[in-house]
């Protein structure tokens, strides 16, 4: 079959089952866009910034379990994808990023809009390719999807010079399968190690299950629940693992780490066995590594052998897919009845994992999140930006199902939530999708209001407006004597003689409700406690996108908090 490089790209995407591509056009990718113009099998979403295209593809992948795809031109188009690619890499999200490149004979000549995107992205991709001939293009795209979605998932970049897109392959055939020398992910855990793990679980007196995003990626949530309920072992999940185990289950003890629950932190510190599944012992979880869980043996199950003993020395490593390992492990573990360890955990847990002081005069962000869940139920998909909004969501929204929290964990990317929500909404029609944002983070990719409006993507945006870059301000509050340098969004760094937010006469910029209206999106604002429930109700009732703004106390902090570099049982409380 005779096809041009551009036709091969689009045909390959169709054969890989791609339904949506997010991107932005430019000179060297015009041939690909020309083919897309006549392609009915793929919906193309024109974002207003390439970074948003990458985040949208990421959100699509997290919500669907499929490979997300983004497309950008060379030079600045490609480099604008970098933050989105790095975000996907840190959280192990399957993504294929396709970039245009200057013509092959111009490579290395500093040609117009040339950037070495293969070199730039090498540390933040699972693999990347520079296509050197049209004949190798079909095999490269097949390999890209295979690598992105197998083993530990991750982003793969395919860089296509302009002349390759225009060249003709006279004998094109898309491969049915691909073999890659030296790439053979181990998906089945070693049986001997699994039996050792079962024996360690039986011998433990203070065991804790520590589950991460790998549970969600492998679809192992049912196997995790079986293990926990068979053994009555308390379960804590990382931020990325929220939803892998029901947040309302009696064995759930919350997220551990810097803003985790006291129950989870003390349980890890006092445990004699940590059963880690699909989690990588991030420093936000371990705190001061040398003092992390000093008396615990560690079982670490992970599909990536490089993650084993990378941060924490492991006693029983098991390399493989979480679903496969847990399926095998559940055949060997013996039932365990609740005992003194469970009683101690339950006593510490009390009636709820996180607390705050409700107010009749101020809109508390924690209460807004609880009211949101009260109205949308447990089936909604919640996306977040990064900062206080993200931590309050993790603490006060009870995630009961996998793939219902879409958030940037590893890289902590402000501006992630809105475009990721677009991707999540496109793969889940009819499901409520809400982006919970701060007033600072929402402005990182606020141009995507245009994409929402034009494509009528029914994302609801919930802004918790404290007029600050709240999480940085919180650190300045606690550790820098309230010197709020460059974190007040009313005045900025020049506003160094602050009379207090109540006396500040500066207007907040922008007016989010007016801005939403300017894009043709209905906006609502709540400034009093009594307006909160009706604002949420009205926004959710709209058939299409809507924006909600809640004016919250400027100096509300996220507690509990473990100061950076401290052991996780040295906890600050508000």
What do these coordinates show?
It is a single chain. With 574 residues, this protein is of the alpha/beta class. Helix content is 34%, strand content 15%. The protein has 22 helices and 19 strands. The radius of gyration is 24 Å and the shape is globular. It starts with a strand and ends in a 23-residue tail after the last strand.
CA radius of gyration: 24 Å
Residue stretches low in confidence (pLDDT < 50, at least 5 long) are: none
For the secondary structure, the number of strands is 19
Total helical elements? 22
Q: Tell me the major beta sheet.
A: 6 strands, parallel
Strand content range: 15-25%
Main features:
alpha/beta; six-stranded parallel β-sheet; single chain
Could you give a short description of this structure?
The protein is about 35% helix and about 15% strand. With about 575 residues, the protein is of the alpha/beta class. The strands form four sheets. The chain has a six-stranded parallel beta sheet with strand order 3-2-4-5-7-6, sandwiched between helices.
Question: Could you outline the blueprint of secondary structure elements for this entry?
Answer:
Elements: E1 3-4, H1 5-15, E2 20-23, H2 30-36, E3 43-46, H3 50-64, E4 68-72, H4 76-79, H5 82-90, E5 95-101, H6 117-121, E6 127-130, H7 137-149, E7 155-161, H8 162-166, E8 168-169, H9 191-203, E9 207-211, H10 213-218, H11 221-231, E10 235-237, H12 262-270, E11 273-277, H13 283-286, E12 297-302, E13 316-319, H14 322-332, H15 340-349, H16 365-376, E14 381-384, H17 388-396, E15 405-406, H18 417-426, E16 433-438, H19 449-455, E17 459-465, H20 470-479, H21 512-518, E18 522-526, H22 532-541, E19 546-551
Parallel strand pairs: 2-3, 2-4, 4-5, 5-7, 6-7, 9-10, 9-11, 11-12, 12-13, 14-15, 14-16, 16-17, 17-19, 18-19
Antiparallel strand pairs: 1-8
Helix pairs in contact: 1-2, 1-7, 3-5, 3-18, 9-14, 11-14, 16-17, 16-22
């Amino acid at each position: 079959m005779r096809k041009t490089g551009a036709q091969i790209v689009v045909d390959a995407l169709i054969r890989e089952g791609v339904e949506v591509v997010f991107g932005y056009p430019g000179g060297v990718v015009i041939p690909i866009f020309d083919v897309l113009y006549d392609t009915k099998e793929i919906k193309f979403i024109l974002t207003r910034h390439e970074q948003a295209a990458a985040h949208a593809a990421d959100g699509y992948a997290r919500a669907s379990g499929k490979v997300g795809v983004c497309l950008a031109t060379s030079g600045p188009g490609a480099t604008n994808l970098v933050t989105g690619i790095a975000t996907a890499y840190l959280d192990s999200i399957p993504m294929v990023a396709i970039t245009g490149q200057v013509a092959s004979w111009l490579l290395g000549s500093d040609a117009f809009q040339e950037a070495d995107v293969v070199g730039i992205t090498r540390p933040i991709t699972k693999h990347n390719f520079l296509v050197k001939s049209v004949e190798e293009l079909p095999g490269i795209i097949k390999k890209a999807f295979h690598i992105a979605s197998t083993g530990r998932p991750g982003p793969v970049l395919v860089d296509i010079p302009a002349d390759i897109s225009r060249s003709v392959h006279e004998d094109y055939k898309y491969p049915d399968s691909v073999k890659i020398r030296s790439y053979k992910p181990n998906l089945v855990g070693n049986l001997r190690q699994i039996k050792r793990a079962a024996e360690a679980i039986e011998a433990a007196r203070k065991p804790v299950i520590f589950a991460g995003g790998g549970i969600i990626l492998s679809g192992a949530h049912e196997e995790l629940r079986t293990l926990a309920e068979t053994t009555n072992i308390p379960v804590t999940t990382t931020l990325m693992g929220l939803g892998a185990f029901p947040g309302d289950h009696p064995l759930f003890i919350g997220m551990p780490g810097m803003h985790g629950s006291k129950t989870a932190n003390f349980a890890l510190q006092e445990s004699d066995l940590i059963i880690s599944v699909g989690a990588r012992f991030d420093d936000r979880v371990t705190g001061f590594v040398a003092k992390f869980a000093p008396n615990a043996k560690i079982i670490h199950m992970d599909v990536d052998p490089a993650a084993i003993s990378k941060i924490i020395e492991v006693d029983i490593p098991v390399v493989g897919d979480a679903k496969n390992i847990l399926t095998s492990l559940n055949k060997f573990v013996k039932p365990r009845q609740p005992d003194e360890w469970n009683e101690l955990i339950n006593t510490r847990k009390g009636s709820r994992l996180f607390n705050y002081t409700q107010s009749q005069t101020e809109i508390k962000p924690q209460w807004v999140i609880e009211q949101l869940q009260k109205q949308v139920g447990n089936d909604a998909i919640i996306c977040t930006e990064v900062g206080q909004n993200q931590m309050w969501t993790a603490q006060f929204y009870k995630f009961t199902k996998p793939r219902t929290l879409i958030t940037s964990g590893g890289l902590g990317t402000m501006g992630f939530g809105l475009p990721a929500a677009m991707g999540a909404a496109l793969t889940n029609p009819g499901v409520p999708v809400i982006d919970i944002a701060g007033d600072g983070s929402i402005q990182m990719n606020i141009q995507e209001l245009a994409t929402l409006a034009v494509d009528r993507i029914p994302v609801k945006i919930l802004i918790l407006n404290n007029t600050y870059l709240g999480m940085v301000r919180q650190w300045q509050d606690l550790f820098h004597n309230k010197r709020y340098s460059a974190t007040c969004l009313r005045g900025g760094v020049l506003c160094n003689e602050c009379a207090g937010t109540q006396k500040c006469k500066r207007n907040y910029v922008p007016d989010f409700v007016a801005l939403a209206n300017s894009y043709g999106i209905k906006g609502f604002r709540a400034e009093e406690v009594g307006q909160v429930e009706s604002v949420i109700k009205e926004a959710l009732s709209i058939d299409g996108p809507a924006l909600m703004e809640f004016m919250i106390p400027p100096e509300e902090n996220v507690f509990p908090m473990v100061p950076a570099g401290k052991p996780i049982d040295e906890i600050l409380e508000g």
